[in-house]
Amino acid sequence: MIYFVQSFINEPIKLFRLTEKTMRFLFNFVRNNKITLLKYGTIGATSAVIDFSLYITFTRFVGLYYIFAATLSFIFAAIYNFSFNRKWTFQSNGKKRKQLPVFLLVAGTGLLLNNGIIAVGVEVFALWDILAKIIAAGIVTLWNFFGNKYITFKIK
How many helices (H) and strands (E) would you count in the chain? Predict the structure, then answer.
């Protein structure tokens, strides 16, 4: 019984320490990468405008199935994203021929996450497709940032 009471008291303290360490890590990461994050956010915002504009055009005006439309709009936005993030955000001098396949792998994983989240949102949770796409965009943005920074463009 004493062990149970002790663990009941200690577990929230351990969780607080973990949260404190996580917050400290995030604060330091943002502080040390603020210019890169600002550039990435700018490219990401314009990329999102391309993605959502094409998605709405494909689904509402062309009549494409939402997953096919999401795939096409994602691909166009990813091409824009690669071009501008490579030179401006991450200032990479690496060979495009080597970086592009890695970028496509990172973006392809992002595409699978994107379409999976949208499909689950629409089919399982009966969300409006645009709301599911907004949720997917938020999650995939994190994957793409870290994937491109540390894998595609190998920035330390």
Answer: 5, 0
Asked if the model's pLDDT at residue 68 lies above 90, the reply is yes
First to last CA, the chain: 49
Query: In angstroms, rounded to a whole number, what is the distance separating the alpha carbons of residues 141 and 41?
Result: 9
Tell which residue, 41, 40, 53, 47, has the closest CA to residue 130: 53
Torsion sign over Cα 39, 41, 42, 43? positive
Which of 4-13, 78-87, 139-148 has the least mean pLDDT? 4-13
Residue 153 has pLDDT above 90, yes or no: no
pLDDT at position 18: 62
SS3 sequence, 32-75? HCHHHHHHHHHHHHHHHHHHHHHHHHHHHHHCCCHHHHHHHHHH
Spatial neighbors of 73 by CB under 8 A, at least 6 apart, are 50, 51, 52, 53, 54, 55, 58
Tokens of 26: 């995030």
Residue identified by tokens 């994203």 is 81
